[in-house]
Structures are given as structure tokens and as C-alpha cells.
Amino acid sequence: MRIADTKETVTMALDTLRANKLRSGLTILGIVIGVMTVIIISSVINGLNSSVSGLVESLGTNVIWVFRFPVIGVRPTTEMLTRKQLTYEDAMAMKELPHVVAVTPGLQYRDKSGVEGTVAVKYGAKIMEGTTLEGDTASVKDVYELDLKDGRFFNESDVERAANVVVLGIDTADGLFGATNPVGEDVTIAGMTFTVVGVMDKQKQAFGGGKNPEDNKAFFPVTTFHKIHPEILDYWISLKFDDQKNKTLVQDELEELLRRRRKVKNEAPDNFAIFGTDSLTRLWTTITGGLFLLLFALSSVALLVGGVGVMNIMLVSVTERTREIGVRKAIGASKQTILAQFTLEAITLCAVGGVIGVLIGSAIALVLHLFFPSMLSALWVALAFGCSCGIGLLFGIYPAWKAANLNPIEALRYE
């Protein structure tokens, strides 16, 4: 088909759209919705992927966690829940392993319902609700490379003396002190008085919107935490190693150390779990896999509905233009020319729907970015538009074939 003929065909298709605005609009509505769905969901998923990647990076790619059972992407069994707890001494033994840079055994307070952050922190008449209490060693700042907004973190001397000091999360400090510097001030927690020595900087959050629970925390030396809640001894051990290439070696050495310390028989499986930040990535990949299936299903239904509408309108168009087709054939137009003409008209119709869907979907994705992690992807925009054109080709072939195979004599007699 010549370029001039192509331009003429596209112009005719656009003229048909303008002449029958309502009919054309209803015809391409499914295409618009399908393309819009692809762009919105893909933008949200891309934004969430970026946020999760940022969170994993903030936790540290060279960080390994050790607990008595796996907690990421696994439903603990009764056997796992009844395993004996890891100890402070287990964590100290890990510090002696080669390639290990820092180790911190941590504890958190949970109420009887198992929900974090139900403690009130008081300063004078002000009360901050829902604060999570966490006990750590001074090494926690090295493991997670924590940043402070004000003051300092507690040190080894504070841990040894079980000093009544606390480092507040940024939301906790703002809720109690506002614009006032809280360093050196005393707060009351669980009926005990603690001196604020530092304030944490804002923590990264995987999913935007609302307050980050990690910013409403109170960090204590682990020995001080024991004075508040001596009944909590279920340690979560975080370990940082020197180089990513040594990860497998460190995990093997950890496994050997813990099996020996926990007296696990040779033929028995591990009664503890070793996992890293890559576990979060794998879990998120599994979740997004389901979201992409949902994306595919929703957009496919809308695009198929739009495709059926396009086929219907093209069949109507063929019927309405039977005499025109007969005239064109009578003056020498070949079947291939008629086939290409009507196929291109169907593709143009769907392409217009694709463009409208891209514009609306992109606008919604940009608005969502103000409230929720959302990242527009040029790849998915191109893919969505390509799919809309593909639908035009797929569903336009039959009407075009029907037009190309009309008998010119019968077509000229058509009334």
C-alpha cells in the first residue's frame, strides 16, 4: 500500500470517527479502559517495587537475620513456635566468626494480643501512644547504619551499666516535644524515668501514605530493656558481614555454630532460621506476580470487549460502504488494497482508543504519585499502546477480508 493511500485511509478513518462520535466513542471504550488499566496498575506496581527496593537497600544487602523460625513468607508450624529461644550468648558467639562485622541481639515489646506499639511514652502532660519498645546493643547502629537527627546513640558503657537512657523515633520525639530539642530531657515509660540521649532520623517506608510505625519507637540498651520487661527473652539476632561474596560462607558457619550450640543431632533438621533481605525481595516478587496476573486478566477482558466492538463497527462500515467498495474494485482496486484499507481503519480506530487510554492512565498515575508510590513506565505505556493496535489488527482482519472478497458486480447493485 502506497504512503499516499495509507494517509488517505487514516484520514478516512478519522473522518468516520468525527462523523459518528457517539458510536465511535462507545466502540473504543473497551480499548480505552484496557489501556488505562494496564498503565495505572503497572505504574503502581513499579512504584511499589522501587519503594521495596529502597527499603531493602536501607536494611543493608549484607545483613543476615537469625531467629528460631522463619517469619518472611512462611506460616510457622506448631513445632516452630515451640522451639527454644535464641540467647544473648548465641549472638556474642557469632561475633567471633570470620567475615562478621557486627552483631546485635534485639528484643521488642508486644502486648498480649501480639500487636506492636501499644505503649504510651509520657513527657509532662503530653502522651505519645502506640510506641514500640525495642532493646538492642550499641552495635545496632553499625548493623543497620542508622542515622540520628539529634544527640547520640547509646554506647557499650550504657549497655554494661543498664543505664536509663533512650533514643526516640522522630515521630515519638515530635509528638512529645514539638520543635524543642528533646536531648537531655526525661520521659516516663512503664512507670520508669529515662533520659533522652538521641533522636532517630526518618526511616524508609516500603509503602507510602500515613505514618511509618518505624518512626514511633523507643530504643533502649538491651540490659535496660530487661528492667522494663524481664519476661521477654525471644531474641531476634541481626548480623552484618563484610562482603556479599562471603554470604554463603557466613551462612554455613552460622549454621554450624548454632547447631553445635543448640545441640542439634546430625540427622535432625535445623531448629532455627537464617535469612536475609533477599527473602523480602522474593516475597514481594511472588506478590507482584499475582498482581501482574490480575493486571493481565482485567486488561484482557476490557481489550477483548473493545475488540469485539471494533469488529462489529467495522462490519457495519463494510455494509454501509458496499457500493464504495464495488466502485473501487471496478476501477482496478485489488483485494490486497481493500484488505489493507479496512485493516488499517480498524487499527486506526483502536490506536485512537489507545492514545486516549494512555493519556487518561498517565494522568491518573501522576495524580496517584502524590498519595501513593507510583512510577510511570515508558515500556508499559508502549506495550499498552501496542496491544491496542494489535487488537485492531486481530479484530479488523475479518471485516477487511469480507470487504476484500465482495463481488464487485453485486456490490454495485447494492442498495
TrEMBL record:
This is ABC transport system permease protein. It comes from Tunturiibacter gelidiferens.
